[in-house]
Amino acid sequence: MQEAERDDFYYSLIFLFVPFRDESTLIMEGETMEEAFRHHREASIRGIENHFKKLQKLLEAEQNWKRIVNARNKAGFTQELLNNKEVDEPQLLGEIMEAVADIADMHINVPNLTLKQREAMLNVDQKRIFHKIKSHFISQKGREDLLENESSRVLRLHSIKPLRMFISGIDGTGESFLIEAIKCLVDDI
Fold first, then answer.
1. At residue 187, does pLDDT exceed 70?
2. pTM check: above 0.90
3. Which residues, including other chains, have CB under 8 Å from residue 37's CB and lie 6 or more apart?
C-alpha cells in the first residue's frame, strides 16, 4: 500500500468510528494518520475498560442486594412486619416526616402577607430579581407621572419599555413565591 492510500485508509477509519464536532480535532498537529488512529484506538480501549469496571461494580452491588433480600426472607422479615402499626417507628423517621410536612407547608401561599413581609422572606437571588423589577416599575411610573396630560398619551405609549424576564427553577426554589411577591408589588404600585 502506498503512503497516501494508507493515510486515506486510517483517516477513513477515524472518520467513521471516532465521534467529533470539529473535523480538525481528529488528528493532532504533527501526528501521522496511523499514529492518530492508534491514539484513538487506545483511548477507546481505555474507555471500554473503565465502563467494564463500572459494570462489574454494578453487578456486584446487585448480587449483594439479592443476598440481603434472600437473608431477610430466610429470617422471616416479611411485608406483614412492615405494615404492622404496633411496631415503634424510629425517631428519625418521625423527624423526616415532620421535615416533609414543613416543606409541604412552605409551598402554601399565605394571602395575608404584606409587600414588606414578602420582601423580607425572599432569598438573595429572589431579592436581586425583585429589586430589578421594582426599579423598572418605579422608573416607568416616574415617566408616566411626568407625562400626565392627555396630549402626551401617544408619547407615553412609545416611552414605555417592556421588561422581559424569564423566571424558572426546579421545585422548591421559590419561583411561585417570587411571582406572588411581584404580583403584590404591582398591586401596591
1. yes
2. no
3. 10, 13, 14
